[in-house]
Amino acid sequence: MKASELRPGNIIDKKFADSGGFQWSFFRHTEYADLEKYPDNYRPTKLTKEWLVKFGFKRDKGRNNLPIMRFGGLYVYMDDFTITYMGNILPTNGYVHELQNAFYVLYGKELTSTPPHPL
Q1: d(CA 71, CA 74)
Q2: Cα(49)–Cα(67) distance, integer angstroms
């Protein structure tokens, strides 16, 4: 994961010194230098059904009855977490920060765990 892929507020996994383990955290603008200097202390958070539910995605059926989660025009296929918008596959690797960034580019709004707006 490169610092250039992240925006402040993106959800990532960060290593905490007190526990030595990783847990999710919001990326802060003050962490760009640390990410470059200590890349092993940061990793992308895998996109899961639980994250999609927190963001307000709803269950649906896609083509060929594949299970999907949708939010407005964004669809996430549950078998491999492929993200599509208006029928186009977005270039992602199945990470939360990628979904957050795509949502921001497409809608001009932050994807939060309590969606403040209907699409």
Answers
A1: 5
A2: 11
**pLDDT tens across the length of the chain (119 residues):** 888 999 999 999 999 877 778 989 999 989 999 999 999 999 999 999 899 988 888 888 766 667 788 888 888 988 888 899 988 999 889 999 999 999 999 999 888 775 444 44
Helix (H) or strand (E) holding 53: helix 49-55
Cβ atoms of residues 61 and 68 within 8 Å: yes
Q: Are 102 and 75 in contact (CB under 8 A)?
A: no
Q: How many helices (H) and strands (E) does the chain have?
A: 3, 8
In angstroms, the Cα distances linking 53 to 58, 76, 113 are 7, 11, 8
| Full DSSP string of 87-117 | TEEP---SBHHHHHHHHHHHHSS---SS--S
